[in-house]
Amino acid sequence: MQIEFFKNKLMDTVVWLIVILMTLCCLLPLLNTLAISFSNNSAVNANQVGILPVGFTLSSYKKLLEDNQFWRSAWISVLRVVLGTGLNMLMMILLAYPLSKSKNRFASRDIYMKLVIFAMLFNGGLIPGYIIVSKLHLLNTIWALVLPGAVPVFNVILLMNFMKGLPEALEEAAVIDGASEWTILTRVVLPISKPGLATVALFCIVNHWNDYFQGLIYMRTPSKYPLQTYIQQLTIDVSQITDPQQLIYFMTISTRTLNAAKIVVATVPLLVIYPFLQRYFVTGIVIGAVKE
Amino acid sequence: MKKRLKREIPFHLMLLLPMLFLAVFSFAPLFGILMAFQDYMPAKGILQSRWVGLENFDFIFSLPSSRQIFANTIIISLGKLAAGIIVPVFFALLLNEIRVIAFKRTVQTIVYLPHFLSWVVLANVVSSILGFDGPINSLIQSTGHDPILFLGSNVWFRPVIILSDCWKEFGYGSIIYLSALTSIDPGLYESASLDGASRLQKIFYITLPMLVPTIVLMMALNLGNILNAGFDQIFNLYNPLVYETGDIIDTYVYRIGLIDMQYSLATAAGLIKSVIGFVLIMSSNLVSRKLVSRSIF
Amino acid sequence: MKVLWKKGIAAMLALLMACGAGGCTDSGELSTDTTSSAGSSAEDDAWIAAATDPLTPYPETVTVTFGKEAGRNFSALAGTEWENHNDDDNAMYDIIGGFLNIDIQIDFVGNGGDDYNKKVAMAIADGNIPDVMKVSDYSTLKQLVESDMVEDLTQAFEDCATDRIRDIYDSFDGRCLESGKIDGKLYGIPATNIFNGQELLWLRKDWLDKLNLEEPETMEDIEYILQQFVEQDPGNNGEGKTIGLVVNTGIAGAYGAQFQLNNIFTHYGAAPGQWIEKDGEVVYGSVQPEMKEALTVLRDWYAKGLIDPQVAVRTNDDRIAVVASGQCGAFFGAWWSCNSPASDAWALDNSVEWVPCVVPVGEDGKVTVIEQNPSMGYLVVRKGFEHPEVAVKLVSLQYDYMRRSDYVQSDVEKAYIAGDVACDFLGNCDFNNALVLCYENIRDILDGKSPEDATAFEYGVAASCQKYVDAIDAGQLPDKTDWSNYYGRMIGTRLAAEVPYNKISPVFYSSTDTMKLRWGSLQKMESEMLLRIVMNEDPIDSFDSFVEEWYASGGDTITEEVSAEVAK
Known about the structure:
The complex is a heterotrimer of chains A (292), B (297) and C (568).
Chain A: H1 2-37, H2 41-45, H3 59-66, H4 68-99, H5 109-121, H6 126-135, H7 143-146, H8 153-164, H9 168-176, H10 181-192, H11 194-210, H12 213-218, H13 227-234, H14 244-251, H15 256-289
Chain B: H1 2-27, E1 38-39, H2 45-48, E2 50-51, H3 55-62, H4 64-97, H5 101-112, H6 119-130, H7 135-142, H8 157-182, H9 186-194, H10 199-223, H11 231-237, H12 243-246, H13 249-259, H14 263-292
Antiparallel strand pairs in B: 1-2
Chain C: H1 2-19, H2 28-31, H3 42-52, E1 62-69, H4 91-100, E2 102-110, H5 114-125, E3 132-135, H6 138-146, H7 154-160, H8 163-170, H9 175-178, E4 181-182, E5 185-186, E6 189-192, E7 200-204, H10 205-210, H11 219-232, H12 262-267, E8 275-278, E9 281-284, H13 290-303, H14 316-324, E10 330-333, H15 342-348, E11 354-357, E12 367-370, E13 375-381, H16 390-399, H17 411-418, H18 434-446, H19 456-473, H20 480-498, E14 501-504, H21 513-534, H22 542-567
Parallel strand pairs in C: 1-2, 1-3, 12-14
Antiparallel strand pairs in C: 3-13, 4-5, 6-13, 7-10, 7-11, 8-9
């Protein structure tokens, strides 16, 4: 019995240790970036900064406040998240709800479903996509970041599976009461789909906020880049620069602390909304990911 | 019958707008696939460019570097697939052993977090940690070894890609296993305890077997994604030094299409990927339907 | 030509007056001759004049859309009234546009390198390019011409390039302007890449003095000095801590990069990374036997500890840090290396002194320099654009007229120049020996003369150099910028002007079809070979197997393609 007790204690300790270690692995790199952003440049260049700032200074953040482009890009990203997520939600609901019906309730359901899956698996590639956006005169406007991805198919399937899992009795009652499909959707289904909706909303927000590639492709001037594209462009590979003047310029500046500050500020909005949605998304994912 | 059809009209109406978007932004660009069978000249457009049949495909398959690129893609994504199942399962099992709820919650909040950060941001973090003067190399140097340029080495690049992806996703990946664990009947453990099973034995003979269907399902689903080795991650971490081991189909298509302006070749390579991906997803969906009677569609 | 030029000025003055932008007077007699020719209406004449003269403005505002590489340094305007200026919208567009009566509209802007090239590629794929844009290489230019998307600018260049612009291109012996031609027609106005002077070996003068060493000339001298630096530790870094020569991971072959050993390779007759003509045939320099001699010496240096043992893993920042911190007192770099890392080292420790040396000299007492690609991109005009000459007019305006010393700058232009804010459409257009001309003018200004063709920029640098001289005379500490300017211009580029050198002129700088697909891996093979041989990881004879493999992996096809291109 004594041995069993020690074995248990030992195992607990090991488990705790490993879990703490793995958690730290996730946390430390981010803390390091945070610390760099608050440290002075020479300490960073001498690699003295660990998880606590060395030579604490707010100068990077002060400099950041002066960087017009950073804030312009941040505003574009915010606008994109609001518009993009709004549109995504509308599209997902309109698509997921009819598709969640059985074939008995909605005869053409399978045809639509096949189209949706086809759209998920095949695409014409970057250039045809670009040509369409260009022909619609959306280039360089916020709509180029919002409209092409208006229907996030993967999330639609997630939400659809979630809706399929809802108790049917409620809807049946509504049908018997003579409620229209619109009423059922807005009064019955949506209110009880909160975890599913919160999950897909979080995914859409994260997608829009984190995407840099569409910004890179569809925005024609750096002044219209959303935040992540702006940050992506910060880490310029010196070997790619052909203009000697430009090369000289880049060789003479060190921006590690400033870049760290930009990353921190760009990450904060996600950290703010994340805890609110976290309690939903676990349920949302588990129910939505697969259907029995 | 008529009443039923009438009842369906709202459904069609609801679908109208989303379908319109799909038509414009997903189906219309499919015409671009025609470029793969042409020698596409931008000034002439798709309608006027010269048709070359399967020439572009022949060319791609004849290049030694394309074999390398397909191999890289598959090796990297198999690595990610393996790491992406083993580590989250392992982590879920560990976390399941912890009974202090507050601690568990905190840990979960922290480990889910990297999933939500973009590779643009994390690539900065990863490269500064693995950089010549980063903490890992400081550690290596303090043991008297020469520092390693991880992101510039063909030996290290793939492991770095796989491990950093695993680092970003393992917490999030464990969600599904954690939930599967909660659905295991506690009675099983109780009776095992009565039989005198140790904790390790319970993990190996009860918990793990109960997780198998979920593991199989996740594996089957991810198999369909095997040609997606992670554009964002690699694009933000690679450099010409590691093209040999790190260049994947998506980055290759990006480079020949947008940097070298070989539009037709890029489209052809993309099409090959789409077709293989389609077959893989369809078959993996079939497999998971047969094996564990679940499917995504 | 002279007449045209006068006409241009006159018309411009007329416009300035019309706009009320300038308080110009003396223009009466000249401005009449643009409006006096017979035959067609005055309005047509005005259009024709604008189309055939460098600086004559258009009679009505012409809207021109542009694709341009992002300018540099707009952040230098922070805190001024112009802090909102960026590549989409800035005062220079108004000023430039005002001269020619064009409305400059930016279609797209990309950061130099991949970002910009990608935007160009998208625009081309879309078949929808702006009226005027820069493309960054010859193969893109070629594709545009093959796709019939750009205008022939031969006539426009004839009409609208000023004498000075022609002189500029002539200074490259035709190599530059020729590169913009396809089948004898000029399709792209090349951006010039000026001669950057010899690659210099920057040595710590204070260390040389401390150890009673002379400045080096030969390979043996360099070796001795490096050995003394490493062994005697003049910088008190601690035993074994001093690095002899800090070297780029690429070893040699690139232009304009620091820490390369090109001089040592050319000393032995090698031309790493270049397509050269040898015995009447076009060959790739890195696979020629001369490479082996240079490599033999370098691996010997490495074995003796004279080359940075961590050469394989240092990033550029690391290399700069090593020099700045005084761990290393010797590196190769062009004249502008005075900015970084030389001035960094000086800023951290004011007792640091540097001396740039043109070494190692050969039997004729000279070093051999590889000439770089004279063109770094081309300005092209969309096929069908009504005013194709506008590209040439812009070049004449920006790189001739606005660079003259009698050109009166507005406040905002002064602020731009002071902050080194650039917003060019072409990138650069200057004499091949611009560096030398610049040095001579600055030298003359410092001597109290006022050279005729000195630009505003040169006067600015000269003033900065003067501040350095004054500070030294007064026994004060000079400002870091002044220090850099003086070391760069009066010490660094003086060497380009005064020390004779031999030239290797590569014959091909562009890309071929096979190169597009294979060059990346060949380059990688090459840089690995260089590194491994220098670091003694492979025997010197592995060079021979590299050459074989290089040819077998596509090098032979590429050599044929390049020969064919050169033969054209």
